[in-house]
Amino acid sequence: MQYGYFDDQNREYVITRPDTPLPWINYLGCQAYFGIISNTAGGYSFYRDARLRRVTRYRYNNVPFDLGGRYIYLRDDGSGEFWSPSWQPTRHELEDYSCRHGMGYSVIGSKYKGIEGRTRYFVPLDENLEIWQLSVTNHRPTPAALSVFSSIEFCLWDAQDDATNFQRNFSIGQVEIEEGVIYHKTEYRERRDHFAYFACSDALAGFDTQREAFVGPYRGWDRPVAVERGESSNSVAYGWAPIGSHHVELALQPGETRQIVFVLGYHENPVEEKFDPPGSQIVSKKTVKPVIAKYLDPANADAAFAALRAYWDSLLGVCQVETPDLHTDRMVNIWNAYQCMATFNMSRSASFYESGIGRGLGFRDSNQDLLGFVQMVPSRARERILDLAATQLPSGGAYHQYQPLTKRGNNDVGSNFNDDPHWLIVGVAAYLKETGDWSILDEPVPYDNEPGSEQPLYEHLQRSFHYTLERLGPHGLPLIGRADWNDCLNLNCFSDTPGQSFQTTTNKEGKVAESVFIAALFVLAGKELAAIARQRGLEDEAKQYLAEAVKMDEVVHAYGWDGEWFVRAYDDFGRKVGSRECEEGKIFIETQGFCVLAGIGLEDGLAKRALESVVEHLATPHGIVLQQPAYSRYYLELGEISSYPPGYKENAGIFCHNNPWVMIAETLVGNGDRAHDYYARINPSAREAISDLHRCEPYVYSQMIAGRDAPTHGEAKNSWLTGTAAWNYYAITQWILGIRPAYDGLEIAPVIPKSWPGFKTTRKFRGVTYRITVDRAGDGNAVALTVDGAPIPGHTVPPPADGRTEVSVEVTLS
Ligand code: GLC
Ligand code: GLC
Q1: pLDDT tens digit string along 515-529?
Q2: DSSP of 54-88, one letter per residue?
């Protein structure tokens, strides 16, 4: 069953009934000011950091799930009836409801008794504000007297404190109302030099800024007393819960449409110019007023919207494909790329499943996010790499997370996740291949943000690599530390105390438990670093890295092979994890995918054997599960992985993030049918028809789909913020379709299904547009290239020598 449809022409998903199985959300903003918006206008906004600069309040895990947002109420002043055109929070019956989620905007609206109300929500480029453009149309044969009420609830900035520290917070709320604009200035009198504002383009019949005055005692957002009565009370908030609500009266003739623009924003003043007049306690509005005035003008709002559309056209224009598979095209051309922007911006911090107060940006997460983002805005990828590297520790290790606002490592979570440093090498390699910007390696970057400790970025990569060489275990495999990619494999934790964090509790010395996964990652990182060193003319150094990679490959062969698949790890007793010797958890996906991806076992058949084992033991119609058999009980020596009920999350769920590792591995052994089949199983668009089972949005990947041991096998959870976005984008574009940025040009090595006659793609790469046509002439994956009519050897298209910016490439596969 479906709850909407894809409008690929407009790059939108159109939701046609409001009661989706879960809130189906979108992101507004892609630079500094962000909002999350659900299909019923729920959600919240923040500036840069979802915890520390929360602009509007949101209550997670609410009943119903999604309540609180950017709500508009329409009231028929003739009958007194009122409703919300976005369905929530009144949940009134509606006609023609639709929510169009597009690239950085959402349009939500409906009709009721001949009155249509639709709102376009978006964040203009380069501004710290959001625009709500409401259109109200009277389709009745008679004039209509209507009231419009807007509403938002301000957050007192620090979302964590806001949700807990009521004894203080009920007394600090402050607002100003000037010329119909509501200014939220809590804590502005002391250490904040920022405030929020909420403005309306129309003359107001009234306003409210105190929640209780608007909503009424013992009432909720579904039945605010001001809306019921048809009159605001012009309340001024002193403490308690500051809100913003405007009341506008409209008289519409039959067929008439009126537009009202609301602007909600965040603004900072220089510390010396906070107050106007100086010495007063009144917020200076000198610099904000022109911004507000600009966007309250519908013509300017329309122009900003057009600029946003054009921006996304250009971002998505970097890579467009035309394949025989609709779901592939839709995800690559639109939604997967779009999701890569969201994961790059948010990391894992703010979605409907990440509360924005729990986590900063993950070190490994953000580095992997680069794989799907770097081609869109390389300058921002560059900045992110330098920020990440600046949180690296002198040991080469890394803080597991950092706060986006302060750009500092998060001490509460700390370091010692022994895979972390290698992801920096993977991320930097992706950046270099895409851009050819070698200057980044010479950028001075501090360790742990300590002034004076700056070293070239290249040295950070060297330290990342050496970090593991200094931390090898009894078999010569890398010690795992607190966890590797699998945050829930906590082999040094041994926690028997409820509530202890599995990630930060370490009860063991950590000198025994080893990770075969990190070994594979080390091999990959070693090869990448060797290639980088070679490009820098450091031939000897390159040889050393390769020698270390070869040595580790041998160790994996000696101690990481279980007969039919790769072992996952060794625990603190030196016993295998992910082996036929185990009672449960005999085979894990991570090492099957990643060892092959790193090239281990490609030559001697181990890779193929391991991938057969994936088919035999892990693959399901809904994707590949993380391990089998699921852990049926808690294992003290394994940690969080066995804390989850079977089939969920890391305990044998389909953890979508690592499925593309197997897809890439399949391309490396030449099996395009299987690679694409795995791709299709978790492709959200391909799962649209089973939306009542899948439940999450059909236009973006979710972190997890319940595995075969779960009673709800096939049910997705934790949509949007997941490494799945970047890895799937990378797997389909660079390995299955096989269009790969390389140091010496654009490499072309498709490994596509046998049944495909070919495909077309346009790829912009280092300032050149490559128009590529792939035709299948035989069953294999051998590539013959013709560039602008002339055959060339090999499978890499070199950059055009003569400054041409358009190149056409014909590819024959046989
Ligand atoms: C989450 C984390 C990621 C981790 C994965 C597996 O997605 O963000 O860092 O690798 O879970 O545990
Ligand atoms: C990852 C895991 C999750 C775990 C968390 C801890 O996100 O998926 O299960 O609780 O890491 O950081």
Answers
A1: 999 999 999 999 999
A2: EEE---SS-SSSS--BSEEEEEETTT--EE-TT-T
